Amino acid sequence: MAMPPPVPPGKRKEIYKYEAPWTVYSMNWSVRPDKRFRLALGSFVEEYNNKVQIVSLDEETSDFSAKSTFDHPYPTTKIMWIPDAKGVFPDLLATSGDYLRVWRVGDTESRLECLLNNNKNSDFCAPLTSFDWNEVDPNLLGTSSIDTTCTIWGLETGQVLGRVNMVSGHVKTQLIAHDKEVYDIAFSRAGGGRDMFASVGADGSVRMFDLRHLEHSTIIYEDQQHVPLLRLAWNKQDPNYLATMALDAQEVSVYLSVSLFLPLPVSLFLPLPVSLFLPRSFCQSLSLSLSLSLSLWDDHQALIWDIQQMPRAIEDPILAYTAGGEINQIQWSSTQPDWISICYSNCMEILRV
Questions:
Q1: Which strand (E) or helix (H) includes residue 284?
Q2: Using 50, 70 and 90 to split pLDDT, how confident is the model at 110?
Q3: What gap in Å lies between CA 125 and CA 136, rounded to an integer?
Q4: Pick from 252, 346, 343, 347: which is nearest to 304 by CA?
Q5: What CATH number does the domain containing 265 carry?
Q6: Most exposed residue of 107, 127, 163, 283, measured as fewest CB within 10 angstroms of its CB?
């Protein structure tokens, strides 16, 4: 995608700040080419009624404005815009919490398109810890749950120009992914980018799945002490690199895959001499861009590491940013890799790095 023309000198700042009326927990950048600085924010309020807000930056005035706000049951554990960089799909937003919900976003208001619930025979629902939207096939979403399962959903988005169709979804497959709670799921760009995904959970393992061969799965890494793994992230450019974050960890661990050709191709992930380490605080979240890793820590710092140095050891981050409070969320902009967003307290800041 072509880069936008440069903004005249004096027009662009390095940091933009937005203050929400509640604590901001989840956040995601829009990837549509006509919505460069649009983000979705989710509240963290300790009650049933929570909020999701769509905000946009006006680059001429340097001001954020809230385009729409809608109610959401419980805090969102994750928010994602449909990965539609060409703008050919409906303008959709998905959220996870008690269920997976898909919303259609308009210029001034948003509406619920579908609620995806795989438990039809009970009033009980196992909360969803996370989900991922497949970049190669935006009709696929995967969810992870505390009930030890991962579910792959298929969407019907009604791609018909000139008319509005309801979005619907169905279960393509559900599988018991771990021995304990599953905390995160992420599709890999390996093998064409559509069928392979990994998950992490409370059993301390990273497991790899292929939608074409679900009778088998591969434990590609397992913590010897079975410390729960909370998050994982793939390098978007090279799917051979995977980063994980453990509970109360003081480091982000990076792994490199080694492919073995036995009766079937198998990838094993071996620890690199790369640990993004901060001895005095715990890692809270992580995000990988094409060449940089962004991790946040509970001492109000966001650290950026140059992972292009791998597999050589990485001693120090190349950039540190101290926020005005404990950081809840960080993300790179996938369409503008020199911009990151950081959420702390009721504030969201976007920074050019």
A1: strand 283-288
A2: very high
A3: 29
A4: 252
A5: 2.130.10.10
A6: 163
